[in-house]
Amino acid sequence: MQPRLNPYEASPDAMKALVAMDKSHERRSIAPALYELIRVRISQINGCAYCLDMHLPDARKAGISQQKLDVLAAWRESPAFDARERAALGWADALTRIEATGAPDADYDALAARFPDREIADLTHIIVSMNALNRIAIGFRAMHPVEKSEAA
Predict the structure, then answer these.
(1) 63: exposed, middle or buried (Cβ count in 10 Å: 0-12, 13-18, 19+)
(2) What residue numbers bound the domain in which 116 lies?
(3) Is 132 contained in some domain?
(4) Could you report the per-residue pLDDT of 60-96, keeping only the tens digit for each?
(5) Could you say which DSSP state residue 102 is in?
(6) Whether the Cβ atoms of residue 127 and residue 91 lie closer than 8 Å to each other
(7) How many domains does the chain have?
(8) Which of 24, 72, 138, 150 sits between 20 and 30 A of 39, alpha carbons compared?
(9) Does residue 114 carry a pLDDT above 80?
(10) Is residue 34 part of a domain?
């Protein structure tokens, strides 16, 4: 796979704005482990190897066990996730697959039962920015480090 273009070079202002939105998580109300869990899940759904390669180590550093990461793709069937994580993952799945889900009331209601408004808004911003970054990485064929080293 060959990269198509470098969006940081082609449109630096837009990429700076997107990265700034993504980096604002440091001021968000969401714990680092949940933040990383959501980012990995969205990247799984979208099939973004570049982002998975980047965020799986971050997830482990944030304290998420390898066992939990191993079953993340099947989170609905796994007892490894608590009620808050399930609500956040359901919302992430619903918004990432919005063309199929329409962001159902059941997913929002589960979220609202476990998170205050600020955290709901912050989770939604995390989901939006991660989906945008996945689409840029996939669309422009960003190469993750394994591909770069194998191509050399």
Answers:
(1) exposed
(2) 8-151
(3) yes
(4) 999 999 999 999 999 999 999 999 999 999 999 999 9
(5) -
(6) yes
(7) 1
(8) 150
(9) yes
(10) yes
CB atoms within 10 A of CB 117: 9
Quick check: 124 pLDDT over 60? yes
User: How many Å apart are CA 79 and CA 140, to the nearest integer?
Assistant: 37
Give residue 31's pLDDT band: very low, low, confident or very high (50, 70, 90).
Answer: very high
**What's the CA gap between 62 and 91, in Å, rounded?**
21
> Which residues are CB-neighbours of 57 under 8 A, at least 6 positions away?
none
Q: Which residues contact 71 (CB under 8 A, 6 or more apart)?
A: 77, 78, 80
Handedness of CA 31, 37, 43, 46 (dihedral sign): negative
Q: Are 144 and 53 a contacting pair, CB within 8 Å?
A: yes
Beta-strand (E) ranges in 12-145? none
